[in-house]
Amino acid sequence: MKNKLIAITLAAAALVPAAARNKMSDKPTFVHSTSDKYEYPTDPQVLAKLDKWQDQKLGIMFHWGVYSVPGIAESWALCSEDRWFTKRRLEARPDRPSYGEFKQWYWDLAKEFNPTEFEPSEWAAMAKDNGFKYVIFTTKHHDGFCMFDTKQTDYKVTNGPYANGKYANITAHLFDAFRDKGLMIGAYFSKPDWHNENFWDPFFSTPDRNPNYNTKKYPEKWEAFQKFTAAQIDELMSDYGPIDILWLDGGWVRKPDLDINLDKIVDDARVKQPGLIAVDRTIPGRNENYQTPEQSIPAEQQAFPWESCLTLSNTWGWNPDPKYKSARWAINTLAEIVAKGGCLALNVGPDRYGKIDQAALDRLAVLGEWLKRNGEAIYSTRITPDYHSGDNWFTASKDGKTLYAIHALPEDQKLPREITWEGNLPKGRMTLLSTGKPVKYSVKGNTVTVNLPANLPDEPVAFKFQKK
Fold this sequence. Notes:
Layout: H1 2-13, H2 18-25, H3 44-56, E1 58-62, H4 82-89, H5 99-107, H6 120-129, E2 134-140, H7 170-180, E3 184-190, H8 219-239, E4 245-249, H9 262-272, E5 277-280, E6 307-311, H10 327-339, E7 343-348, H11 358-374, E8 381-382, E9 388-389, E10 392-397, E11 402-407, E12 418-422, E13 426-432, E14 437-438, E15 440-444, E16 447-451, E17 461-467
Parallel strand pairs: 1-2, 1-7, 2-3, 3-4, 4-5, 6-7
Antiparallel strand pairs: 8-10, 9-10, 10-11, 11-17, 12-16, 13-14, 13-17, 15-16
Helix pairs in contact: 6-7, 8-9, 10-11
């Protein structure tokens, strides 16, 4: 029996390392675009919180859970839809586990999740130092493993090897640490829960991401799941301090067929968290207070609140062979998103022990240093009509009186001595934000040419000026 379990574990692990991991993560595996329409909230407190959130521009997102133990795709290996089953199967082999055995192996990863090196104050200090203004943390992903001390299930971090750990109720300690650093707090919560027997009943097979039974035929089961979900969200809203954003994933759980009474859940949440921003992803309406394109950026500027959630590496969770994007990519991407009216939630996946890869930290540090010199062009800005010209992105102060130009220096290019753009003609003094000193420029027709001083580092540059 012991040898069989070892074989199952090795076979399941083979789903993810080496070729498997590369196939699963070279490209984004699941991409959400913006919704077709946007409905502004009417609650003045929500509108005020949204305005504050739009000032922040840069959030850090963490995908962290049992999937971080072997370094596999978060939750989705459990799903038997073609795109996920093909990736899970990879190749025919005599020792690969059955689906039932694989599911049990996955659930049992909770018995190995023991993040003894997790220090929430270090994460928070890193985020603050590197220019992040809010955090989105995965309190529960689709696999149902809870990173908080819920009373609704035993499938939680406080019921495993870390139960007596220094920060066993991880979500509580993380939220406290980030709140102490002045960051806005966002709770990611998955509406589907594949571990819950009233979503995926173990008596039935699980062909796709949806409940594996007819909710009309077994209404009592769906009602039990509705109550379970409401109770968990109420715990987060009641016991974890002030929360700014309820970030709800799993857009297939929606009216009319899979209604979880979300209107009431959000209304109840706002009794305890006035002004709470609700983000019911990909579902236009009263509970999608800002839109969330995933692993993508809208092609055009958007006038309503939105946020791109993008990964710094090639996966959401940690993987042992990551392909990290560059710090310059992060700076350029942030400039584009802000010029188009959005915020950036930049995702990092901590490892099973609670550590963040040094390669990720190095890139975030470069981003943070750039923001210390150029953040005025990013934070608390708003859109301006002529927002793009070549490699240049434009933002405006909230009163519209000051414009900022950000030259998004392409990868592997040296900073030129001259930068040109069309439109947004300046008048009077133009300042290089990184030095605070004026720069020379000329205007010919509709073309602006800026002369850069010598010996600037090869990085994106930003300018401040009044528009003619």
